[in-house]
Amino acid sequence: MSIRAIMMAAGLALPAMASAAPCTYVPGGESFFGPAGSGTTYLSCIASQAWDALSLADGNQAELETLRAELEDLRAAAPTTLRFDDTRAGCPPAHAAEDPFWEESFVLDTERAVTIDVVLPRDAFGRSDLRLHLRSDLEDRGIVTRTITHTHELTWESGRVVWADTLYAGTWTVGLSSNTADDWGCGTDWGHMNILLH
Hints:
Layout: H1 3-9, E1 24-25, E2 32-34, E3 37-38, H2 42-54, H3 61-77, E4 80-85, E5 102-108, E6 112-136, E7 140-167, E8 170-178, E9 192-197
Antiparallel strand pairs: 1-2, 2-3, 4-9, 5-8, 6-7, 6-8, 6-9
């Protein structure tokens, strides 16, 4: 099996012309910069680098198998963004104070650095806090970060919470709560939870 066949079987597209340009992830977005320029996928960039570095002849099975294993490891470790929109009904939806009103779960196959970034609007008068909760199958970390919003009249204002840490393999659940009721959220156009797995 050729290098090209192995890479294609692994789902890695090969650019027409290889390059020594580095594969660099751009934080805060899903674009990658590599041999083909802006917009190239991270894995295509990796494939190009492997193509440049090896240039092996067909039939060198041992080195081809090593390459295939390394590419699979790179695929598993590539940065991934998970996006969840606020699908709760209402603007704002009804929710109780103190208890989590929006939860989303994700699974880690191995230990990963994780960044969680949530933007959510609220319609309230005075102070209303947005809190980020985190728990796994093995532990409940409770509130890991929070933000304060305050307005002098009943009006909309966006709250944002951002948190990062290294998490072990397993199922994790992210939740949001507030000290006030019935004021956070206004549908999928305005509420978003982005989880970046580094």
